Amino acid sequence: QVQVLESGGGLAQAGGSLRLSCAASGNFLSLEVMGWYRQAPGKQRELVASITSAGTTNYEDSVKGRFTISRDNAKNTVYLQMNNLLPEDTAVYYCNADVRRSSWYGVQRYWGQGTQVTVSS
Description:
- Helices cover 0% and strands 58% of the residues.
- By secondary structure, it is mainly β.
- The strands form two sheets. Strands 2, 4, 5, 6, 9, 10 and 11 form a seven-stranded mixed β-sheet that branches.
- The relative contact order is 0.32.
């Protein structure tokens, strides 16, 4: 059993900041890539940012320079610092954790329940 729990979503004004946190817990051998996706109504889910266990990051173009993803491997936690928020950032944000649960099976992707981020103009 692997649990992924997000926190930090909420309401912010344009230009404001929010910090999302996501912790993975349970039984697994290792935690590989962790990331954040978002999905707005009527739109496809898109990758916002991801980070490998070694710290390599990847960002969607529209959030570069505004969002920062980081992780604390000791806590199995990934963070998304969102600065200079824009109304178009409004979406449900989902944390994902790519987890290796056994030596015989490949990496499995687990998702959090999602946290709503709403940015008002």
